[in-house]
Amino acid sequence: MRELRLLPAALLSWLVVLSVIITRQAWVAVALIAIAVVLMAMLKQWGQAVTVSVLGAATALVARGRVQAAERFIFPEAITGTVESSKKLGEGLSIIRLGVEGYPTVVPVIINGPQEVPRSARVLVEGSAADSNRPGLGTVLITTPEVEVLQEAHGYAGWVNRVRDSFAESVVRHVGDSSQGLIPGMVLGDTRLQDTVEEQTYIDTGLSHLSAVSGANVSITTTSVMVVLALLTIGPRIQLGWAAVALVVFVSLVGTEPSVLRAAVTGMVGLAAVVNSRRMEPVHGLCLAVIGLLFWDSDLAVQYGFILSVVATAGIVMLFPLLYRALSGTGWPDILVRAVAVAIAADVVTMPIIAVMAGRVSLVAVLANVLVAPAVAPVTVVGLIAVILTLLPGGLELLALKVVEPFTWWIHHVGVFCQGLPIATVEVAEGVTGILWVVVICCWVIVGVHLRLVKVMALALVGVLVVQWNSNRPPAVVDPATVGYVVVDKLPEAVPPGTGLIIVTDPDGEAADRPTATREGVPVMFPNRDGEVTLHVDGSQHAADGRF
Fold first, then answer.
1. How far apart are CA 314 and CA 312, in angstroms?
2. pLDDT tens per residue, range 362-399
3. pTM of this structure
4. 24 backbone φψ class: left, alpha, beta (φ>0; ψ -120 to 50)
């Protein structure tokens, strides 16, 4: 149990930081620390009592100091800051996270306009401030129609932006639509080319961790460097040094957003574990990462991404051996057994958290992650080679991108296929009852695998899917020619008598997430905006991509 020696301190540190941020006070943190110390004293764990008290108090003091700094800060009417991250939320809507001098955390700024602001740019923001509905060190959300760019990113930050822009342009020129969003996302964490429909596909199928930088990217990058150096007969410590250099360069290209920092710290712990495998157990390394990250950024304690990353890693570390032994008896190839064990371990421990976060859970996440597992490493490694080749003249990145494209095509279409399966996602009942049901089901999945009932569980799941498929099959499709349709450029104010369907060719506007009809109940289709949509005999409409 040596590897669990830092677990109480890590859990306490997380709880005290969480309590300080939510209550904006220190008394709850003091009470938690006192309870932990008394409990350790009762168990006669004097070393643990000292450890939890010191680390708990230190993380609480750091968080409390940052909360006080945020509360004392007075925002001027015009805020000047540096853009730390930028993300497009939809057509004509984006969010930037602004680093402001003297403020202990980033300031979220919603831009109600088509403006795209590059990372690391110095900007001036004038807008309306409101209280944010998300817990955090900062409680301010600013909305503005436009920001003024005072200074473009320069120096190393400007070079990084040019690399990302050049790579995105090369991807658009050389690969198909299904790969354009994934390649920059998986390689550099650049999701600018992903639309909202594509993002939702990866969320529904549990592949969203692949559509942007995650711990897998860091592990693959550093491991690749060490493997190459090992083939050159270079010693392990030098391998570690060059892998660390590769990690620093990778993070500088991707950015220092919380998700990237989580992945980077996990990667560094993993590297240390490789060199000192006898002294660095996985859980011990994870606890070190949690404590270090909470000191670095107290806001991580209330972010779902941080919770999911830590819980998924812990689930894989603790459940993988159990699941691997149970699945080994199936007779499947070892590589498939390992992929399934990792996918189940990560999915069952994170599903309750996703249920709280989104109110829905994916039932196809394990299947999707197993199917795409062989494609992840080639995309990451060859994609990074393509980034390097983008910096050279002659368009040499074309070959690397063509090598990557089949793998990203596969990942994208696995997501689309799994999203289209019956009950790909299910809604969780509101309240504690719904979450408890998710926890119970996840526990039974683990027990079922442990009892080697995998085939029985698989047959039961297939049966449920078949029944649900038959019950959810849409009614027969209506031929528009049989209902008296009209084709117009714009939706008319008055509907001609006898019209059974209106087809509008105007491509402007965002894709709808529900069917459209006139006040008189006449169905309206926007094929150039919504894509392929079918009309059915019961009057319903169904989009080919599953949006409605």
1. 5
2. 888 888 888 888 888 888 888 888 988 888 888 888 89
3. 0.75
4. left
